[in-house]
């Protein structure tokens, strides 16, 4: 986290604020006028008082001066209103821009970033932190502008009347010094309260959940966790009491200082009237100015905590905006229709001059997982470590400077993929097998375009993957993980997420092909039925079939599946596998396989060991090699049941 005192700590935020600087300048002008107007009221009051005492002012003139005071008061009120409305509108625009920019950045981070994100942290960063930053522009800066202007103007007027009166203000720094001491104690207590709140939240998140409750009950620890929570809750209450006491002491000290200042002003004023011939109106003016000075000084002191909170929030927003996103291929990709290598079914296949390009071709493909520090975000990622995502290998456990050897690599170098050469023809089904950590899921994410290779070539349908942007990749590749994500939406919306213009007939037809027809017909609202957050109304197998149907609607050139039938029973698995041969007819299919029933029917099996291909061939041929990697997997039971 960057220091809040660094003027350049938030360059991205500053650029967004600068885009709306005109609105802010107008609001600050309103704020200055609103703060200064009441000061001139006091000058008119002095004129009224002195004029009446000395008999220089008639009734009509006095009423005119009073009307002027009323006008200045109204001017101050409505200028302050205009300042607040203008500042809020400008801040609202800035916050909307910040939130949108953060969302854009978070959705374009490297895919490994999502293994580090704490549950709920992203939502908090997009809401609480951004809203916390808003206070800087709606409260802190306007108050500083208004208060500084009011204080400076008051001091000038008081010094103009009698410079000796300025000496009374020496009490203010003394009072503020004591207040700052009290604030230091408050800061200490607040820091402790943050720690306790964090522990309370952690306990609540852990044990007010199904898995946490089961863990506690299985080990007889429910009563202990309840006692721990109660103890921490009591500690938080004590800290809150201490903070309130320290804040009250700070306020009382500040109030005492201004009582002394006001009393000193009155005593000095009496002496000036009796000994120096100063007018009574001037004494009243001095006292009122000193009392008016209390409010802006207090307001400035009160901005300390909002300023601290907003600075921290701005730093957290900047941490997201300043993070390194995934490579933007949109600017690098060739314009549509200008890719050198044509699609497989393009001109050239008919006249025999060129054979159709394979669905997938890789040459000397290499990839090594970067350290977590390369893609994590301070305060948003989970203690610098990666979290488990089913289809993405767990990496970076050794912290910022190292990483786990996920692929073996040459000489223990740690390459997850080490020189992969693989070709998958159109209509061919290739199963990829290997022990845990062999690089299967890594290969899937690279050829699916979710992760860019460090070196080597990946071509899909004859097109270099590195030259394609997100939209072009999505048009060529369908990726179906073992535990697919389902939107909290209707069946229709989930399917149309892949093809927005799909007709209901298309949706129903593809559902029939993947054995979802009975389910859709059985739902009260059919295709309009909402299937719940993460598809909780569906079984694991139904979610997989929905994902397969969604992918099939896109008619991809390459289909990458991570054990697509893992949650299916034998009968449904056979039906879905048969349907897939029709749904993905003409596409190359790469399956990450863990079940012998899936592997046996593949056209070719690829065996991965330590990030390298060690065997290729059909099931019977590989199974016959006694000392081969595939045979070892079978003997060890790693390929599961038939």
UniProtKB/TrEMBL annotation:
Keyword Transmembrane in annotation: yes
Main location: membrane
Domain of life: Bacteria
Biased composition (Low complexity): 332-355
PROSITE patterns linked to this entry: ABC_TM1F (PS50929), ABC_TRANSPORTER_1 (PS00211), ABC_TRANSPORTER_2 (PS50893)
Pfam families according to UniProt: ABC_membrane, ABC_tran
Subcellular location: Cell membrane
Domain ABC transmembrane type-1: 29-302
Topology within the bilayer: Multi-pass membrane protein
GO function term, MF aspect, one: ATP binding
Region Disordered, annotated ranges: 327-355
Keyword Nucleotide-binding on entry: yes
Membrane spanning residue stretches: 24-49, 69-96, 140-159, 165-182, 252-272
Keywords: ATP-binding, Membrane, Nucleotide-binding, Transmembrane, Transmembrane helix
Residue ranges of domain ABC transporter in the record: 397-635
Protein name according to UniProt: ABC transporter ATP-binding protein
Organism: Cellulomonas wangleii
């Amino acid at each position: 986290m960057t220091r809040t005192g660094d003027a350049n700590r938030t360059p991205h935020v500053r650029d967004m604020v600068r885009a709306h600087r005109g609105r802010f300048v107008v609001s600050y002008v309103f704020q200055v006028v609103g703060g200064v107007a009441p000061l001139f009221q006091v000058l008119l009051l002095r004129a009224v008082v002195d004029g009446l005492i000395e008999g220089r002012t008639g009734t009509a003139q006095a009423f005119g001066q009073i009307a002027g005071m009323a006008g200045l008061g109204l001017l101050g009120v409505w200028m302050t209103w205009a300042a607040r409305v203008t500042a809020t509108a400008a801040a609202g625009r800035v916050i909307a821009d910040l939130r949108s920019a953060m969302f854009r950045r978070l959705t374009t981070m490297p895919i490994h970033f999502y293994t580090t994100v704490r549950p709920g942290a992203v939502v908090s960063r997009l809401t609480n932190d951004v809203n916390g930053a808003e206070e800087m522009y709606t409260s802190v800066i306007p108050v500083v502008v208004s208060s500084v202007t009011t204080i400076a103007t008051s001091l000038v007027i008081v010094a103009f009347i009698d410079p000796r009166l300025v000496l009374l203000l020496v009490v203010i720094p003394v009072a503020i010094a004591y207040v700052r001491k009290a604030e230091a104690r408050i800061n200490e207590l607040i820091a402790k309260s943050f720690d306790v709140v964090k522990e309370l939240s952690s306990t609540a998140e852990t044990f007010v959940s199904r898995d946490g409750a089961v863990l506690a009950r299985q080990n007889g620890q429910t009563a202990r966790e309840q006692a721990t929570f109660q103890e921490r809750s009591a500690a938080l209450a004590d800290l809150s009491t201490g903070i309130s006491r320290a804040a009250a002491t700070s306020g009382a000290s500040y109030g005492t200082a201004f009582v002394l200042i006001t009393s000193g002003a009155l005593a000095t004023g009496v002496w000036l009237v009796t000994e120096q011939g100063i007018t009574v109106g001037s004494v009243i003016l001095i006292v009122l100015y000193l009392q008016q000075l209390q409010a802006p000084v207090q307001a400035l002191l009160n901005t300390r905590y909002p300023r601290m909170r907003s600075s921290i929030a701005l730093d957290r927003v900047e941490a997201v905006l300043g993070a390194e996103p995934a490579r933007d291929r949109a600017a690098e990709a060739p314009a549509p229709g200008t890719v050198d290598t044509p699609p497989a079914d393009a001109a050239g296949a008919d006249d025999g001059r060129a054979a159709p390009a394979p669905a997938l071709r890789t040459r000397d493909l290499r990839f090594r997982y970067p350290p977590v520090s390369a893609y994590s975000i301070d305060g948003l990622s989970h203690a610098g470590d990666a979290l488990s995502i089913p289809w993405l290998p767990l990496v970076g456990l050794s912290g910022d400077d190292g990483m786990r050897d996920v692929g073996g690599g040459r000489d223990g170098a740690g390459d997850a993929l080490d020189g992969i050469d693989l070709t998958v023809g159109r209509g061919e089904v290739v199963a990829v097998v290997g022990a845990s950590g062999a690089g299967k899921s890594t290969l899937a994410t690279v050829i699916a375009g979710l992760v860019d290779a460090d070196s080597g070539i990946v071509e899909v349908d004859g097109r270099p993957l590195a030259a394609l942007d997100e939209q072009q990749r999505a048009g060529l590749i369908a990726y179906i993980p073992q535990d697919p994500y389902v939107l909290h939406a209707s069946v229709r919306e989930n399917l149309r997420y892949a093809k927005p213009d799909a007709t209901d007939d298309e949706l129903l037809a593809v559902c029939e092909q993947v054995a979802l027809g009975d389910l859709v017909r059985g739902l009260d609202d059919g295709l309009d039925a909402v299937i719940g957050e993460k598809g909780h109304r569906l079984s694991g197998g139904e979610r997989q079939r929905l994902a397969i149907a969604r992918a099939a609607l896109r008619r991809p050139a390459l289909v990458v599946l991570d054990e697509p039938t893992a949650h299916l029973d034998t009968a449904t698995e056979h039906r879905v596998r048969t349907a897939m041969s029709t749904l993905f007819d003409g596409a190359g299919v790469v399956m990450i396989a863990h079940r012998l029933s899936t592997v046996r029917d593949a056209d070719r099996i690829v065996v991965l060991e330590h990030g390298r291909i060690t065997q290729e061939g059909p099931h019977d041929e590989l199974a016959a090699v006694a000392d081969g990697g595939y045979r070892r997997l079978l003997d060890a039971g790693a390929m599961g049941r038939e």
